[in-house]
């Protein structure tokens, strides 16, 4: 047996060029674990083809605003490499994306060629939901069974309450608060913005909301700032979504006369379209429109040394328990 250990980070992926936007959206809308389009499984792919075609132009413009492509793969690769070098022994880092390259089958082919026969698979979604973590893990398991059944691997599916993660997130919030004038700092409203899910996921028992809430409470025990709330972003389509909507909360804060707002991306550990465009551009413009003139975002975790050390500690604890 090889002494080499593979470390595989799972994430959703993102388009690496303007031409990749439409096929990326098609892959996303084709996933019935994430989105159940009307008509059942038989019509999912035709509907996905139609929706991705019509949405791609607008989404492509959003990507143009942040440089033309998603940085998610680059950040995830840096995270994988940074965690691997903090582990003992020979650890080879990989990433496997759900909706764009490198897909799980590409990653498994590399692992096989590298002679890696055992691995730890780490979901880069801190909070578990069947729509994201579950879909990525299930996809990797299916592909591994088909393409590399000799691979022995274990999975870390959730780590919403890992102390090192909470410490790193608290440090980013302190960095964000430091961007405000000291006379204004106590008045800052902190808005944690997580990706929304259709309410039916929560109603069926998905732990996502409970875990997001636990993360925020753990972080705010460390930060001890009095003014904070949780909201949910990226809602689309005619279904009932988790509430409150981030847009509605920003509008309400403006109507109440608050003038200082710190946005904290809570379900994202890397910069991508939802931080760089939705929070940094769309929500900033909305905040200014409703009278919030002091608008900032806490830095993302990305490849911060404290975050990578925390994740290496998580992997080490997992390996000790095997």
UniProtKB/TrEMBL annotation:
Any one GO CC term of the record: cytoplasm
UniProt-listed HAMAP family: Ferrochelatase
UniProt: Fe(2+) binding residues: 195, 274
PANTHER family associated with the record: FERROCHELATASE, FERROCHELATASE, MITOCHONDRIAL
Its job: Catalyzes the ferrous insertion into protoporphyrin IX.
Family label: Belongs to the ferrochelatase family.
Enzyme class name: lyase
Lineage top rank: taxon: Bacteria
Gene responsible for this protein: hemH
The organism's taxonomic lineage, starting at the top: Bacteria, Pseudomonadati, Thermodesulfobacteriota, Desulfuromonadia, Desulfuromonadales
Subcellular location: Cytoplasm
GO molecular function terms noted in the UniProt entry: ferrochelatase activity; metal ion binding
GO biological process, one term: heme biosynthetic process
Biological or metabolic pathway of the protein: Porphyrin-containing compound metabolism; protoheme biosynthesis; protoheme from protoporphyrin-IX: step 1/1
Stated name of the protein: Ferrochelatase
E.C. number(s) listed in UniProt: 4.98.1.1
Organism: Geothermobacter hydrogeniphilus
The reaction(s) this protein catalyses: heme b + 2 H(+) = protoporphyrin IX + Fe(2+); Fe-coproporphyrin III + 2 H(+) = coproporphyrin III + Fe(2+)
Keyword annotations: Cytoplasm, Heme biosynthesis, Iron, Lyase, Metal-binding, Porphyrin biosynthesis
InterPro entries per record: Ferrochelatase, Ferrochelatase_C, Ferrochelatase_N
